[in-house]
Write a sequence for this structure.
């Protein structure tokens, strides 16, 4: 992702203080987004149809109110992929980037693109609601541009995800975020530990549409 921001290529070593500072800034953005995500989303995750203690420790009755040690890297990777895709202005290059991703990566990217307003990259500059009459140079205008860009990318990713699934599995992708909504929270499902076996079945086109409850 640092290369997308004008830094060294992935195979190069980080040698400048500027690169280090930029990495620290990036990490700070993600940490803030993660804390807000835990507060708004993770604390409300459901595990219907799954034994919570099989994934979250003896006696667990539900998902913990924070990302686990395996969910946290998943969030970070997906967030960087989202951020990197948003930095690409050329639509041809952006499409090529998305097409290079695996079906599993696309599903994760699709989900992370649905973050609530204010959690996406660049959206932390303002938290005021959208107002069509704001000054184009203001923080509110920047906020609107960022959220609108993410919404446009989200539609593109969803379409490509469904197309890739159909190409690989020869059938339409099931609406997992609707069918299994009681196994997560809001539009978030595939990153949770208790849904990893189901995600594997989805990617391989083997998941049954019959609910386990």
């Amino acid at each position: 992702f640092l290369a997308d921001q004008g830094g060294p290529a992935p195979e190069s070593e980080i040698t400048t203080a500027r690169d280090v500072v930029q990495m620290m800034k990036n990490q700070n953005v993600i940490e803030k987004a993660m804390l807000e995500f835990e507060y708004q989303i993770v604390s409300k995750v459901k595990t219907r149809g799954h034994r919570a203690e099989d994934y979250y420790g003896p006696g667990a009755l539900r998902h913990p109110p924070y990302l686990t040690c395996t969910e946290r890297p998943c969030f970070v990777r997906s967030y960087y992929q989202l951020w990197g895709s948003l930095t690409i202005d050329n639509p041809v290059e952006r499409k090529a980037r998305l097409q290079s991703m695996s079906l599993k990566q696309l599903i994760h990217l699709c989900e992370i693109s649905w973050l609530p307003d204010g959690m996406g990259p660049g959206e932390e500059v303002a938290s005021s609601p959208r107002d069509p009459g704001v000054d184009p140079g203001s923080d509110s205008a920047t906020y609107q541009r960022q959220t609108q860009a993410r919404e446009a990318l989200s539609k593109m990713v969803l379409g490509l995800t469904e197309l890739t699934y159909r190409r690989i599995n020869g059938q339409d992708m099931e609406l997992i975020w609707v069918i299994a909504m009681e196994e997560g929270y809001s539009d978030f499902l595939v990153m949770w530990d208790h849904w990893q076996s189901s995600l594997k079945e989805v990617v391989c086109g083997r998941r049954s549409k019959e609910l386990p409850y």
